[in-house]
Amino acid sequence: MEKTRTTLDIDEIKKHPKNPKRHNDKLIEESIKDLGYVDDIIVDENNVILAGHGRLDALKKLDYKKVDVIRISGWSEIQKERFMLLSNKSVESGGWDNEKLKMFEKDFLKNVGFQEDEFTFFEEKLSEINQELKPYKKTHILLSFPPDKFLKIKKFIDEILKIGEIEYEQGSN
Amino acid sequence: MSKVQTDNSYFFDKVMLRFNHLPNKDIIKVLDCYAGNNFLWDRVKSLTKKNIEYVGIDFRKSKNNLEGNNLKFIKTIDIFKYDIIDLDAYGVPYLLLKIILDKFQKIDYNKRKNEECVFFITFIQSLFGSLPFGMLSEIGYPKKMVKKIPTLFYKNGIEKFKRFLSNYGIKNIFIRSTPDKRKNYISFVLNK
């Protein structure tokens, strides 16, 4: 496989006859209009697109005449088709990290194509409670004993608990 | 600084806790002791029209950070200049909070400005997570006792943390907790 960069007349670039991917044409067009043509189209040695069908449509609408491309030579037809599908599928299947998306403002996300129904992650998940803290003034005694002495000790504990305001917790190591 | 990791879960809850309890001032000075990349306060700033003067502390370089150990910085910084002190730790920010609360306790009664300082604390205890010996000792469980059976004393960490806060005269908190009570986002006010 050989990878080169070149510039082609836009009419020299041909769409792949089996490309199944649909695009958000308006979003791609707005992106190129706003930020420029950054991500080069990838073509084979016959100038057939392997990645960048949406970009070609947008560039035509924006009246580009010359287009920088990355040319890949030396792949079999199977390899070309595999790349054409993988380059879209790998991005599509990645999904989004909602916790990180929340670091952006809603309007900013809307401007790059996110839809209102995708914003459920902006909802607060936890309810907020106003709590009064009361002073906790108690003395603590830790009683450690072998398990087989428990029954002998328990009757005393039961007596102690009758005094009231006494908390009892048990654990073992 | 005890932990470098930051807690990015429940991000929007943390943002809204801060937004809901911003002091009623036009210019608000914030000291963020676990600043990370400043994402949290950048987000709060985007929601409010108030002027937020922000200083962060973190080992990580970021636009508004003092770079380094927050335990060292906090000893030299005049914390009373700030309207908000934020301890968004990944864990229990006991040591840092103790230093700060001790400073608040030592304010000369006659020199009090009677202004409010809002605290935001993140308290996270993992499933088998320990609690700081110092904190347990302050609420009456000495290290010797805890060491005999640590799991008994590590139970229900957030309730123990509340007792610790109560010992410093904090009477009221706003809290958002996950159902398992392991992640807790707290706000309270102290006078300075």
Supply the key terms.
heterodimer, A: 173 residues, alpha+beta, four-stranded mixed beta sheet, 6 helices, 34% helix, 16% strand, elongated, B: 192 residues, alpha/beta, Rossmann fold, seven-stranded mixed beta sheet, 8 helices, 7 strands, globular
Would you write up a description of this structure?
The complex is a heterodimer of chains A (173) and B (192). With 173 residues, chain A is α+β, with helices and mostly antiparallel strands. Chain A is built from six helices and five strands; from the N terminus they run βαββαβαααβα. Chain A has helices at 25-35, 53-61, 77-92, 98-101, 106-111, 150-161; strands at residues 2-9, 41-43, 49-51, 66-73, 128-132. A four-stranded mixed sheet of chain A has the order 1-4-2-3. In chain A, β2 (41-43) and β3 form a beta hairpin. In chain A, α1 packs across α2 (53-61). Chain A is elongated, with a radius of gyration of 33 Å. The two termini of chain A are 64 Å apart. Chain B has 192 residues and is an alpha/beta fold. Chain B has a single domain (11-126, 158-191), classed as Vaccinia Virus protein VP39 (Rossmann fold), CATH 3.40.50. Chain B has helices spanning 11-20, 39-47, 70-76, 94-105, 133-138, 143-148, 150-154, 157-167; strands at residues 27-32, 51-58, 65-67, 84-87, 116-124, 172-177, 183-191. Chain B has a seven-stranded mixed sheet with strand order 3-2-1-4-5-7-6, with helices on both faces.
Stated plainly, the CATH topology of chain B is called Rossmann fold
Structural class of the helix and strand makeup of chain A?
alpha+beta
H and E string of chain B: HEHEEHEHEHHHHEE
| Helix share, percent of chain B | 25-40%
